[in-house]
Write a structure and sequence with these properties.
Shape: elongated
Helix content: 25-40%
CATH class of the largest domain: Alpha Beta
Number of strands: 14
Radius of gyration: 22 Å
Structural class: alpha+beta
CATH topology of the largest domain: Rossmann fold
Number of domains: 2
Distance between the termini: 47 Å
Strand content: 15-25%
CATH architecture of the largest domain: 3-Layer(aba) Sandwich
Length: 301
Amino acid sequence: MGSPPIAAEELELLAGQHEICGVVCQPDKPVGRHAVLTAPESKVTATALGIPVFQPDNLKDERVIQWISGHCAQLIVVVAYGKILPRALLELPRYGCINLHASLLPKYRGAAPLQHALLNGDSETGLSIMKLVEGMDTGPVLLQRSMPIGEEDDIDDLFRRAAQLGGQMILKAIQKIEQGTAQYTEQDESLASYAPALTKNSGWLDFTGMADLSVSCAVRALCRWPVAYFLHEQSHVKVHKAKAVGGSGLPGEVLQINPLIVACKQGAVRIDSVTPEGRKTMSGTQYATGLRIKKGQNILG
């Protein structure tokens, strides 16, 4: 059960070593300016592998139980499905349901753990495989592996690394379940924290309330979606690459044009790549010179 690219990658790996009796994923959705109806990546992969696919709108629909039962599922592996499974589904397979979650649980329960690890400037994250129970990411943990976060890592780097490590962890977890050696550890509720889903507004860079590292972390965390941005002359300017550097000034003050360096509440940030509203991607310097922005000017004006 899963929809995005990471689910498709794990599906392909599992299909090479186990019998996948079916894939449950989100319905096709309109994508892009022209709202082209697009299938989830896991559906594309499953179809190529000749695996049956079911795309329910509601997991409480009786047809979900009937479909999975009809395909004789012994174990359900969940990777970024995006919805909480109801009890009837959790209790259906002989060996239950396991889930790959991208954090060292109980830290960062929720929909966007890797993004929040980057947003908070963490130097380490990790992956957990847990047994699914009712509740959001509260089940006992079977396996955990840590994963370092480099100073230049963005969310694409972490997703790529998580997909590689996660696949091996899922295979190991299934092996333990098959051999009857799986041991689960209950989570410490006192250490739980949450990583709620991102929204379009999550990308706004408030230089007046952020330090240089916070801006840099936000750009790296949000480069896939919704993409960090600031407002200049009432126009959205997306920021794709930025780095914390030395410097001080009023929040939003341009300290240097080549490269473009802007002051934050604490420190400064070098803005390397942007996409102004309605225009192509360009360097920060090209953006500043094109609008004749001068040193000392406030870019937030």
